[in-house]
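Fig. S4 source data, part A: sequence.
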Amino acid sequence: ELPWLAMLGWCVFTAALWGGGLAWWRQRIARQRAEELLRLGQVARLNTLGELAAGMAHELNQPLTALLSSTQAAQRLLADDPPDLDTAQTAMARAVEQARRASTVVGRLRRLVERPDLAGQAQPLALATAVQDVLHLLEPELAQRGVVPEVLAAAALPPVLAEPVALQQIIHNLLMNALQALEQVPPAERQLRLSMARTASGQVTLSVRDHGPGIPPEARQHLFEPFYTTRTGGLGLGLGLTLCESLAQAMGAQLTLAPEATPASNAQRGAEFVLTLPAAPPPMTD
């Protein structure tokens, strides 16, 4: 006498409605998750693009500024009566060097986007020669700040295994950071020392030490983080050391900040960065 068919129909209808609602809810959650992943992916790509653009601007600023200064100087020298041709040719030669440097930086950043294997491009290099090449490029910066670098090299230093452009870029950034730190001390106290030595394990180290104000203790552990900078007034982008560390790691080297000297004194102040490079294997003989 009970309406079994109606009751069964109601149960089936309720179960179908509940199943449909559950499926709709799961689909809605899945769609929201996919939209969130898409948004995060877009943000990640924009951040990567922004980091690349900021890095390119950071790396190209120095050679382009030097290029502009050299060409303007050559233009003024040629406008003199009589024109100073020898000095103008020197200024134009410097401009050519900086233009080639800018072109090399752009090419390296392009290869960086393509995820190059710097370790596979490494070749035996004379570290002292790379240091002297960068110091030559930075002669105007050194003269402007009245800094005479002290270069110390151990005897019989073996060649290092590195990618030439990446090695020069790391040395350039370390020296520019040191010069910017030295701007904060009186000219008579500006000292810059570059030391090259061989470690007990056979590796080769390059130490860049300035006599500037040093790095605050709270900043030492964040120094290699992207977009972290100790420069005030919004002058730093916080990408120089990050790019240096990435380049060093990509070619099998290591860039570290030396421990702070204790006890701190006026004679021991400043910061020291150490680039540790693998030594090139000796040439094979028959």
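Fig. S4 source data, part B ends here. The longest strand covers residues 192-198.
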